[in-house]
Write a structure and sequence with these properties.
The structure is a single chain. With about 80 residues, this protein is mainly α. Helix content is about 65%, strand content about 0%.
């Protein structure tokens, strides 16, 4: 949903816009680009986290917290 809102439905630059309006419209494209990059980074990190959880063979543990602290270094798992 961010792609159409960020780019296709973005305000278009017009010849009659004031300098402030032109600046704000250009800033919109920059913020939309940063938003898409952040979403792509979150997808990549979550894919890595899921793959690491699926591929690792670990010994049994007493609790989930012990398992995560002992065998997994996933401080960024919150992006899921």
């Amino acid at each position: 949903a961010i792609v159409p809102l960020g780019f296709f439905a973005a305000p278009k630059l017009d010849f009659y816009d004031s300098p402030r309006e032109q600046f704000v419209k250009r800033l919109h494209y920059i913020v939309a680009s940063i938003g898409i990059c952040c979403e792509l980074i979150a997808v990549v990190w979550s894919t890595v986290a899921v793959n690491k959880l699926n591929e690792a063979a670990v010994d049994p543990s007493k609790s989930l917290m012990e398992l995560l602290q002992r065998d997994y270094e996933l401080p960024w798992i919150g992006c899921n």
